[in-house]
Every structure is written in C-alpha cells, then in structure tokens.
Design brief:
By secondary structure, the protein is an alpha/beta fold. Helix content is 37%, strand content 21%. The structure holds adenosine monophosphate and manganese (II) ion (MN) (2 copies).
C-alpha cells in the first residue's frame, strides 16, 4: 500500500504553519526520534516553525542523530501557548503521546503519520501505510511526493528508523521497497556503517551484565512455543530489542515475551512472533497495539501476575492455529 498523492499534498498546510508541534510516542525509539527530526527539517524547508516535544527523554544511543538536541521533554518545557497545528508520527493512538497532550490546542488540527496496524486513525489527516517497515519509510515517500530535499541529516534520521524497526533488515517487514528506500537514503548521505556502530555497537558495559541476569530468568511454556524473560527495574537496559530478539531466535519458539518493570508500578509487555501469531491483535485486547510480529501493552501488577494473565491467552491463540 502506498499513500495517495492527493492525501500527501494535504500535509502541506501542516508544514507551512507558523507554529507546528511535532511529537511521537512515549519511550521513543530511533524511528520515533528520527521521524520527528526529519519532519522538523520538512517544516523548516516549507517555511513553518517547528517545535519538537516528547514525553520522555531521547535515549542515549539516539543522541547522535542529527538535530537530537532540539527535542524538548514535555515536563521540562516552559509554559507555552497550545498549538493549533500538530503532527504526530509513529504513534498508533493519541494517548501514546503522553504528557505532550498538554500542548495540543482543544481545536488543533492533527496530522497522524504512521505504520502501525493498530492505528486508531485519529486526527484530521491520516497518512497511514501499514506495509511500510517504519515511519521513516512512510516519510521518505512523503518527502519525494512533496519535492522536499533529502539532506544528509534527513537521510540519516530516516534510515535510523528503518534500520531499527526492521531489526537491521531481518524482520518480515523488510520489503523490496524498504531495501530500495534504504539504498536511496544511503545515496543521499546516510551511512549505514556509522548508524550501525552508533545504534548497535555502543552497548554500555553494564547492560551486558544486566543481560546475563535477564537471560537467567528465561522460561518456556506450551512445549517451548512461548519464551518469557523478566527485566527488573535494576536491570533495565538501553535497547531491549536485543534481548527479545534472542528470546524469539530460540528453536521452536513462536512467541517471545519480555516483561519489564516501569517506574509507576506498571509492567511493560513486549511481544514478538515468528510467523503464526498476530501479536498486535493480542496487545489490543490488553489496551496496547503494534504490528503483526511486534507489539506491546502496559498493565498494572507484578511481572509474575501479568505473565499469569497473558500466557493462557497466548496458549489459546497457539492452539487455534
Ligand atoms: P516494543 O515491544 O515496545 O518494542 O513495541 C513493539 C511495537 O508495538 C512498537 O511498534 C510499538 O510502537 C508498539 N507498541 C508497544 N507498546 C504499545 C502500546 N502500549 N500501545 C500501542 N502500541 C504499542
Ligand atoms: Mn516507534
Ligand atoms: Mn515505527
């Protein structure tokens, strides 16, 4: 699926507005950060004035992305008038922008640019491409359609999202189009080697120690079709994708689950599947969402109680296949 040219052109007024708020989901990943930063340049190229706000701080490994210092954290922002023009990117529902909501005007016009199958289609303009590997891939299409310049910094930010959301071009969301777009971005000045070095080969040493603890919590259910791991707060790591990818890589595993303790007594649940289970559908039952092969939700409880609620649901889905 590609976006219609007519709908993409409807984004123009959002890019040209005198005050534009650009935001994305809580706990931003490189696709969220890179997409916000690429949109920031799109607004500047179009004559608008961008302000980038996220609920949470930019993860350390994303601070190298060009322009990352321009992103503000909602709770640290000085008071400012609410925005009437808002672009939300890489967030499947409005609630996932978290605290940034307080800067969204009551009658604000919202453009929703995304690739999540669970997207609730909020906002006045919805540019949703569920076949795109990343919001970075959706934005590439938008840049080309609108004739915006893909500068080396835009290319780097877009490729960062594509690289990480595809698990370095290995997940099933990596389409021939994804590879072509990545090639175009490399030609426009993004360095795959440098991004890989920065996003994957700069793991803090303490995270490897934590990883060994987390791996020792590995459990299996349903004859080894489900793997689970616990991430206690003390062992939180910068990039949990590495861990859940290991849980999913085990022979015979169809669904891998990571339960992580959050600051507010909730548990963050991340799920990955190999080929049979639509984990977005399961996450939506628990108020979350995502993609067919990667999804998540949050729930109050302990890691053990949340595990006890989820496993029977997963078992039933596996039995039905
Ligand atoms: P994660 O396991 O946190 O890496 O998330 C996997 C995918 O599911 C990502 O694309 C997330 O944006 C999405 N996702 C995770 N948690 C939620 C949630 N609570 N609500 C909606 N989408 C989510
Ligand atoms: Mn994301
Ligand atoms: Mn994404």
């Amino acid at each position: 699926m590609t976006l219609s040219a007519a709908s993409v052109r409807e984004l123009r007024p959002f890019l040209e507005a005198p005050r534009v708020l650009i935001t994305s989901h809580v706990r931003p990943d490189p696709d969220a950060i890179g997409s916000v930063l690429a949109l920031r340049e799109a607004v500047m190229q179009s004559g608008g004035q961008p302000t980038c706000v996220l609920e949470d701080e930019c993860p350390v490994r994303c601070k190298v992305l060009p322009g990352a210092a321009e992103i503000q954290v909602a709770r640290e922002c000085a008071e400012m008038a609410p925005f009437e023009t808002v672009i939300v990117v890489d967030s499947g529902n409005r609630e996932r922008i978290g605290d940034t909501e307080r800067f969204v005007g009551k009658a604000a016009k919202i453009a929703n640019i995304d690739h999540h199958i669970s997207n609730t289609r909020f906002g006045e303009l919805v540019l949703l491409d569920c076949d795109a590997s990343a919001s970075g891939e959706v934005l590439y299409e938008i840049f080309v359609e609108l004739g915006l310049r893909i500068t080396p910094s835009v290319a780097t930010n877009l490729l960062a999202g594509i690289l990480t959301d595809t698990g370095r071009f290995r997940h099933s969301n990596t389409s021939p189009t994804t590879l072509r777009v990545a090639a175009e971005l490399a030609e426009a000045g993004a360095s795959l080697t440098q991004l890989t070095e920065q996003l994957y080969f700069s793991i803090p040493a303490k995270d490897l120690v934590s990883t060994s603890q987390i791996l020792s919590s590995l459990e299996f259910f349903d004859d080894g079709q489900i793997s689970t791991m616990f991430v206690p707060r003390d062992y939180a790591v910068e990039d949990p994708d590495n861990l859940i990818d290991l849980g999913r890589a085990i022979e015979g595993v169809e669904v891998a689950v990571l339960f992580s303790e959050m600051k507010d007594n909730r548990i963050r649940v991340s799920m990955r599947s190999k080929s049979r289970v639509n984990v977005s559908e399961i996450a939506e039952r628990f108020g979350g969402g995502g993609h067919e092969r990667a999804a998540g939700f949050r729930m109050y409880g302990t890691m053990e109680t949340v595990q006890q609620r989820l496993i029977p649901v997963l078992s039933e889905v596996l039995r039905a296949r």
